[in-house]
Design a protein that fits this description.
heterodimer, A: mainly beta, seven-stranded mixed β-sheet, four-stranded antiparallel β-sheet, B: mainly beta, six-stranded mixed β-sheet
């Protein structure tokens, strides 16, 4: 099994619909992140969580919300999807005890809003 | 705040050619440096990382990178590329202390022709 699992892998949804992207990890890491990737823009941070009770906005949080249900689970919601939220979304984890080994990424969720 | 610049957005090489991808960062403190690779349709994979010590680091698949502190650079190199190296490459940096937010460059898309 993958260390960081994202579901679904692909999703097409209509404008205005609510959608949730889920992420779970078996790494035992305390920190979790949601990024979106757009061509030519690299990866941009949406939200991050240091632990279950510590959630913070990243650089592009408007239109998104998150929930850290447990240390191992971090979900991203689009309350009312719009076409410019069409992107590749990545969940990642890191371990604050080391800070030395970068992040572990999930396989990504390709979201299309029509 | 950290920022990362990758100056080459698209690179086209023939097999066996040498590769160098530029990466410069801006940050006043001590950093960890990373190169990630994303093969078509896949998630991000760690190629190599630098934390401290020898500024020349070797990664997987014959890649290496050199940290030049005075130039705030961490360029990626490979002496002889293969068709299978076709991918997008991302340079990333995070601060050694405090919040480990990983900041990405915008990526370099490499196409290796057979």
């Amino acid at each position: 099994d993958a260390d960081v699992t994202q579901t679904p892998r692909n999703r097409i949804t209509k404008t205005g619909k609510r959608i949730m992207l889920e992420c779970s990890q078996t790494k035992g890491h305390d920190r979790m992140y949601w990024y979106r990737q757009d061509p030519g823009l690299g990866l941009r941070l949406i939200y991050y969580s240091f632990d279950v009770k510590d959630i913070n906005k990243g650089e592009i949080s408007d239109g998104y919300s998150v929930s850290r249900q447990a240390q191992a689970k971090f979900s991203l919601s689009l309350e009312s999807a719009i076409p410019n939220q069409t992107a590749l979304y990545f969940c990642a984890t890191s371990d604050s005890r080391t800070g030395r080994y970068g992040y572990t990424f999930g396989s990504g969720t390709r979201l299309t809003v029509v | 705040a950290q920022s990362v610049s990758q100056h080459n957005h698209h690179v086209i090489l023939s097999e066996a050619a040498s590769l160098e991808l530029g990466c410069n960062y801006s940050y006043g403190g001590t950093v960890n440096l990373f190169w990630y690779v994303q093969y078509p349709g896949q998630h991000l994979q760690l190629l190599l990382k630098y934390f401290s010590g020898d500024p020349l680091v070797k990664g997987i698949k014959g890649f290496e990178a050199e940290f030049i502190k005075s130039k705030f650079s961490f360029n990626l190199r490979k002496p002889s590329v293969q068709w299978s190296d076709t991918a997008e490459y991302f340079c990333a940096v995070n601060a050694r202390t405090g919040f480990q937010k990983l900041v990405f460059g915008t990526g370099t898309r490499l196409l290796v022709s057979p």
